[in-house]
Records
---
Amino acid sequence: MADPILIVDDAPINRKLTQRILTGAGYDVRIAEDAETALGLMPELQPRLVLTNVRLPGMDGLTLTRRIKEDPLMRETLVIALTGCTAEEDLKRALEAGCDDYVLKPIDTRTFPRLIEGHLARRAQEAVFAHSAAQFTPADLPVWAGDLCRDFLREGYLKCEEMLSLGSASPVDDLRRSAHLWGGLAAMLGYPEITVLSRRLEEMLRRPGAMPKAESSQTLEKLSTAFTQSRVPDSTADKRTRLPVWFIEELASKRIAVSGFDPREAARVTGLFQAAGAQVTAGAGEGCELAVVGVRTGQEACPASSIPVLLVGTTPGYLYPPALLGGGAMDFASAPWSGDELLARACRLLNQRHGADAAGIAPDTGKTPSVVIADDDPTTLTLLRTTLRNYGMDCRIAEEGEQALVLIRSAPPDVAILDVIMPNMDGFEVLAAVRNDRSLRQVRVMLLTAMQQEADIVRGFALGADDYVLKPFSPVEVVARLKRLVRSEP
């Protein structure tokens, strides 16, 4: 049976030409003179493909596309825009509206049928990918595969962001190889959305001629979002990756202002807090209790605020803003950040850990900060001790948990830096012992944990950690966070 195709065009000559070309190629073609008529035909016709002119009387082609993609019964329909405009920004708007591709007019009658055939074949192949992937999810993987999933999602996100930052200067061959690799790995690990988007991107980049910048960038942005929003299910991740109930209860009644993000990141941050039950507003947000602000490389200023501020890095590799060293209730999350991390830091700020109780915990301004560093890695110990001593801090070191606890109890430091994984007692056990000892309640605790181990972050905050730093870390970031903890400039 021929694939049904709907042509939407108000120009009779264009409709007739396109209809004859596709009918001659064996397709079942219907026509509509405007978008309203097309929407009326859609439920009965259920076309596999809609070819729509961008400029239509009344509802234009881009609005028609949005209506199609918003309808659960029609969103899988392919939509190709027919346009006589070659401006990159106009083509990008078509893709942002949901168009799967665009064709520049006048149509090349020799290649047009092959183009349509290629799109329909690709969509059929994507359906096969999605169906087969749906039969398998990361939950079916063995427990040891959790780290593979985490690494795959993180590295994919970083590569996408790198390529997006390069724009038109991004190497096509490098991106094509990455897309090919992502498609295969995502299929094996059970991420169908990443599989489909990766195959689509790879095909785009194999087309002869100039690279379709707007289309490939749009697909790359969708991939970046898919990498950040995909999760490692419970069967492959530590069960503690789920936020404690008190975290969710803390957020459920709060009003949160979100600003400084591009639309894609703003949607991600907003969705994250809304899923936790918070009320989210854009911009300054009158009456809000927390501000979540996106910052990027080179941004020095921090918005003045009478409420706690969570600064969120939007540029991978950007460690922390200078404003972090200032006073007030403020915290910072580096990119790429996880959803659990953002919610955990927000809860800490709302609990006023750096707010009203700061003066009671901070040492005297003129005092040399004292630090206990505990890590079983000699390189990490040496790096931290040398760096902190260069900044005028008094350091004592321990190579395992029990020794660290002895040092902390014998002469309570201002801050204890604890590696999560240590022999005898791990960092969590030392942290719990410190928090259960009333004589040590003034000691601030910073945890060191491996990159993207959200379970460690959440568990550490739940046990009473004041901050954490991810390995591999920047010594400068450690110093910046320590200065905020001790409220002292050595």
---
Amino acid sequence: MRDDGVMRTRPSWLAEGADPDYRFSLANERTFLAWIRTALSLLAGAVAVVQLVPEFRLSGARVLLGAILAAAGLLLSVLAYPRWSANERAMRRAAPLPYSPVLLVVTGAIALVGAVVLVLVVFTRW
């Protein structure tokens, strides 16, 4: 416990290896924040689709689109910290940065939303 009465804990892996160049750590943190911003954007898009987009002739289409966007935002927000910490650990150990399939999953989710929107706009509006 610190003098101000606030307990500050650090992950144990921060004691591993050597501190990386601070520029790389800050770049990793900016990437983490970009993932969080993207997750927030996906969640905001989900709310906007469900609340603001006019109903399509296909019942439940707005909810489906909103659910896909919300799920992608939730997934991204949950996986942002583990990705950040894995990169930090790799840098501390001077190891290669780990591969993450999350980028492919988010790309697939956004492509799915785009395909659904295209079908809904082209085939169900008229």
---
Amino acid sequence: MRKQHGFTLIEMALVLVVIGLLLGGVLKGQTMIENARTKNLIKDSNAYLAAVHTYRDQYHQLPGDDKGASIRGNAWKNTADGDGNGRIDGDTEALQFWNHLRAAGLVTGEIKDKGNEPETAFNGKAEVKSAVAGFSTSSICYSNTLGRAASAMDAEQDDGNPATGSIRALETTSSGASATPATSYSEDDRYVVCRQI
């Protein structure tokens, strides 16, 4: 009979230590990626709000609602005018919001007829919405935002409460559609986070 050899306790312990180190490294890497995405979301939110204020200072109208945008020159030739009522109303003005900011050189990207909303760090969209999340005015909403990131954004830029302040959150359904206003953040859930313009 041949003698069979198995792993010794020391060898088994070493294998478990190596597996533990690998898992720890993967988890740490995922945390670092998520933190970077959160920082990008916050940075983009600040940049978009600054772009809106700059546009308003330069043209004395809101992007998307600007009634004289299409006659400003070559960079503006593929934009459409808003109605100039001081609000960003409906899908057409929400679409033109990004086109006006792009034509003014305040955000990057190509001017398009459809699908021109910037993507977020969490594979969602930055969309302009009117009278949502309890706001009476327009806001920029970031879809598919992880709860930890939504909470961090709200805490850093507002009051940390998803139901009050200039940043509010909507809970999402399993299909990703926005539903009811959130009353608290759950770390692993997804939200539509809206920042008032």
